[in-house]
């Protein structure tokens, strides 16, 4: 069960997020609050796995970054309408693990929370476009040269991919959501520098990550 603390800028949004997450399988809302003033004490008291923060203002964003810098091991998922790529990059540098639009669908938010709890970083396509737009001089190869290790869950999913299972079958086999599987598969592709499932499996076999 993923323990989630909800923090929003208004009572209406807070109530809506709580209600939405209360029906999600595998997620337990352990508490909620308005504004960033008491979030540190709530985290210490409630011990959540993930903090879901809705922050529309510059002041709230600054408070979130200060908080995340003091809680580097905590999974923070951010809901914001900020399309400024520089702020997105700053949030990632300070420890925010998921950045989603405030109008994200329930499945997207739940999937992001599950991914963050699993140790992944989630960036919505809108935020990704804004981020890339701020760094046109960065060569794509600068990112693909990084050699990152797969997590145990990613190795497990790669093994199931080697068996020919699709995302829905993997989700059923591991009792996780389809959104979470998609996030894991995307992470596998990125870390192995693979463009297709077949290529990812081939690289995994060559590196001895999986066996068939």
Characterization of the model:
The chain is an alpha/beta fold and 212 residues long. The protein folds into two domains: 2-133, Rossmann fold; 141-206, Winged helix-like DNA-binding domain superfamily/Winged helix DNA-binding domain (Arc Repressor Mutant, subunit A, Orthogonal Bundle). It contains eleven helices and six strands. The protein has helices at 11-22, 39-46, 58-70, 85-93, 106-117, 125-133, 141-144, 152-162, 167-174, 178-192, 197-206; strands spanning 2-8, 27-34, 50-54, 75-79, 98-100, 122-123. The protein has a six-stranded parallel β-sheet, with helices on both faces. Helix 4 links the parallel strand 4 and strand 5.
Summarize the structure.
With 212 residues, this protein is of the alpha/beta class. The protein is built from 11 helices and 6 strands.
Fold topology:
Layout (H helix, E strand, L loop, with lengths): L1 E7 L2 H12 L4 E8 L4 H8 L3 E5 L3 H13 L4 E5 L5 H9 L4 E3 L5 H12 L4 E2 L1 H9 L7 H4 L7 H11 L4 H8 L3 H15 L4 H10 L6
Parallel strand pairs: 1-2, 1-3, 3-4, 4-5, 5-6
Helix pairs in contact: 4-6, 5-10, 8-10, 8-11, 9-10, 10-11
């Amino acid at each position: 069960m993923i323990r989630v603390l909800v923090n929003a800028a208004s009572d209406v949004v807070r109530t809506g997020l709580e209600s939405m997450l209360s029906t999600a399988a595998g997620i337990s809302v352990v508490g909620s609050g308005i504004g960033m003033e008491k979030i540190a004490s709530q985290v210490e008291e409630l011990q959540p796995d993930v903090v879901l923060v809705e922050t529309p203002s510059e002041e709230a964003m600054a408070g979130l970054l200060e908080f995340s810098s003091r809680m580097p091991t905590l999974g923070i998922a951010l809901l914001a309408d900020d399309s400024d790529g520089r702020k997105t990059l700053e949030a990632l540098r300070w420890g925010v693990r998921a950045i989603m639009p405030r109008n994200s669908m329930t499945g997207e938010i739940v999937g992001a929370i599950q991914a963050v709890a699993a140790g992944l970083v989630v960036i919505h396509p809108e935020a990704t476009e804004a981020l890339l737009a701020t760094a046109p001089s960065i060569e794509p190869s600068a990112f693909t040269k990084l050699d990152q290790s797969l997590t145990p869950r990613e190795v497990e999913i790669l093994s199931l991919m080697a068996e020919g299972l699709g995302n829905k079958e993997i989700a059923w086999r591991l009792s996780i959501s389809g959104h979470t599987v998609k996030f894991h598969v995307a992470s596998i592709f990125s870390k192995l520098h693979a463009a297709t499932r077949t290529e990812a499996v081939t690289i995994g076999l060559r590196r001895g990550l999986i066996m068939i």
